[in-house]
Structures are given as structure tokens and as C-alpha cells.
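User: For documentation purposes, I need each entry recorded in a consistent format: the amino acid sequence on its own, followed directly by the corresponding C-alpha cells. There are two entries in this batch. Please keep commentary to a minimum and don't merge the entries.

Assistant: Recorded as requested. Entry 1:
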Amino acid sequence: MTQPWNPDRYLAYADERGRPFVELLGRIPAEAPATVVDLGCGPGNLTALLRQRWPGARIAGVDSSPPMIERARATDGDIDWQLADVADWRGSADVIVSNATFQWVPGHLDLLPRLAARAGQVFAFQVPGNFAEPSHTLREDLAAEDPYREHTRGLARPSSHDPVTYLQLLQGEGFEVDAWETTYLHVLDGEDAVFDWISGTSLLPTRAALPEELFERFAAELRRRLRLAYPARNGQVVLPFRRIFVVATRA
């Protein structure tokens, strides 16, 4: 599931991307865990919040992107940063959290029970639930057109499930589960703000697959379509963003 992540591009909307993590963290009932792990920690800016919440715990962050782990290590040397794919991770912790990562893992419903089994107290995660929105569908539709489709066939496509699916899955593993969804309305500056947003995440596989000159052509057309789908008003656009949250606690 390794993607060509760019920490600077990803952090361009750090506050907006961080809000779901804060909401998730606020619903975790663990009081004094000894160990806490952040799976898919990215550049580590949100992992640092775990230490604020549990100052006595040993904190670790795991990510498959070398640039992301390099950035994390440069900004906080007190956290145990580990370069690994979450699908291959074999560790354990009292609390395991993950923010906007599992949507990139194909068949992650099979992975979640295995990860939950390694959580001594709580397994908590958040995934986007907006894959039917124009910010995704316009990119996918354009990538399926000529002359792009010969380069974009078989690209990784992020996906997630409804809250009830996750709730029932982890209830079946013996957990008490709190599952919910929130739709954020992000007010972003600039008529191309939605394009800039996806440039740090879901557009990355397409960018990596296309030759540079072809990507520039693709990007110009995608910007045009996104402007129509998300019209600017007074220099700002509104990006609705549905997020799905799950907190599974050992009964």
C-alpha cells in the first residue's frame, strides 16, 4: 500500500486533516495505557497528541512511507518511529489507533480483527467515507478516459465501509464498539482548493502512474471539472468530507 507521499503537500491542510484525529482521541476511554501505537502515522504531527493525552505511555508511530517517517523522526525524537506497512505489522500495544489509513489497505475487513486482537485495551480508527463524492469520482472517471487509462489501469483505489459494518465486525470479536460518522464542511481558500487537497492524498497514485507531460494535461482538465463541482464563492469553496469512526474496547 506504499504511496509516493509528500509530507509538505500532505501538511498543507494539517488543521483540517487533524480534526478527525482529535475527535477520535476524545472518545477513547483508556486512562493510563503503558503503550500506544499510531498505525499510519504519516509525518507524526498527530502522533504527538498521543503523548499529550497519555504522558506516561511509550508511544510508537508506524508508517510505510520513508519520507513520512524521516519527517517524523526529525521533528520528535522521543517517539519510536517504525518504517513498516500496517498490513505486515506484528506488534502489540494497550491502545492502537489509526487515522485515515485503512482505506488504502485492500480487503482491510480481514486485517482489522487481527490488529484488534493485538490491542490490550482499545483499538480505534477513522477512515474517510466520501468515495462517492465528486472529489473522487471525477478523478476516477477522467483516469478511465483516453489517453490516461492505459497508464492508470489497476491503480490502488481507496475504499471504506459504513459504520455498522465495522461495528458488527468487531462486536463479533468480543469488543464493545462505539461507531459513528461525522461530515465536516471544510471551507478552503482558492478556486482550485479541492484539487490542492486531493494532491496530498488520493491523487498520488494517478500522479505517479502518468508521465509528467500527460499528468499536466490530466491535472488541467481535473481542475476544470472540480471547479464546476465545487464552485468558489468569495474566493472560497466548501468541501463536505464524511468520516467514519470506530472505538472498540475490550469488554
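Entry 2:
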Amino acid sequence: MERPKVSCRDCSTTESIVWSKCPATSQSDSVAYICNDCYVTNLIKKKKEAVNLRNRVEVKQEPKVAVRKSARIRSIKSFSSTPRTPKAAFVPKVINYKAPDPVLVPTNSERVLCNNMFFSRGDIVCIQDENKTLYAQLRGFLTDQYTSKSAVITWLIPTKDSPPPNERFDPSTYTIGFEEDTPRPLSSMSFVMHAPSAFYMIKHHSHAPYHGDPFKAYLPKL
């Protein structure tokens, strides 16, 4: 005997794994059927509606807390009619410490390094002073706490046989001058040639005159 075909009440499908009975939509039908998919969908909707209904009931049952207004609370305008100006931001005071003045100390070394060049005691240097080219001999070195190099010099005085200072330097035509005690920065001097520290002392010393070849007493510029 063939089973009568049924259709779903909600989606009107005729194929389903499991059929469930449900109330009929019309008075003529005594029993109606729904498919398995519609049954699961309706079950999920009913659970969501029950949860929402329970949440609404709990919210309605929360008691209201009475808030008492204090008589001490007053408006800000009642205290002062003028608006308050904002306070300035706090800025810490910066203390600037001044570096101490340089203190020159004599150096016992026979040579010092300045501007990537070694200067030795007795070297001939060139100094530009008011567009004039002057020559001097290094007598000693000094340095300070900032590693700045200075030197004391002995001036060399040209003679009639000396060539123009701007062109070249001939040590045999210069004579020793006065010694300057004020240190000068070594960076302001230009190297000319190496020479012994007693080169001019030998020629002009009264007790030990030197009558030899003057070119043997110094080293020419390389």
C-alpha cells in the first residue's frame, strides 16, 4: 500500500528525512506536517524569543535608586562673575653652566701635533699679520684642558740680502730678533721648514761664533 504524499506546511516541500506533526492552518485539515529543516528553524526562533522575553522582564524589575540633590551644590557663576583664566604650564628653569676659561700649561714634549702636522721645537713658521708675511722660530709649546695648542716664538728679522717674504724664505739672510712671551695659537701658524733650536744662537753667540756653512745647521723644507 502506497503512503500518501504530504507536503510541508511552511515551505511546501514534499521530500524530507523526518516529518513532524503540527497544528493545521485551516479547519478542513485535521493534521499538518512540517519538514525537518522547518522544524529546526522554528525551534531556534522559539528559543531566541524566550531569551529576549526573559531579558526584558529582568530589566523592568530593576529598582530605581533615588538620587538626593544636595543643597550645598551651587552653580559656579554664583561664586564669581568673572571667568577664571587657565594656569600657565610649569616650565622648569634651565641652568646654563659656563665652561671655565682655558688655562695654558707648558708642555715638555719636543713636538706636538696640530692640524695633522707635527711641529718641533726650533721649526720656522710663517705668520700672516695685517697682510704682512712674518717669520719666527718656535721656542716652546703650551696646551690647555681643551687640548688647544699654543706656542711661544722668537721673531726673525730680515736683512738687506733677504728675498721678499711673500716669495720665499732664506734662513741664512735672517737674524734673530726679540723673544715674545705671549703665547700664540699654533693653528694660526704655517710650517716653513725644520731647523735646530740653536741654529741662530750659534751664529750670533759671542762666546762661540760659527763661521761654517750656514746650510749645514738646518734641514731644508721637503
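Summary note for entry 2:
The first helix runs from residue 36 to 60.
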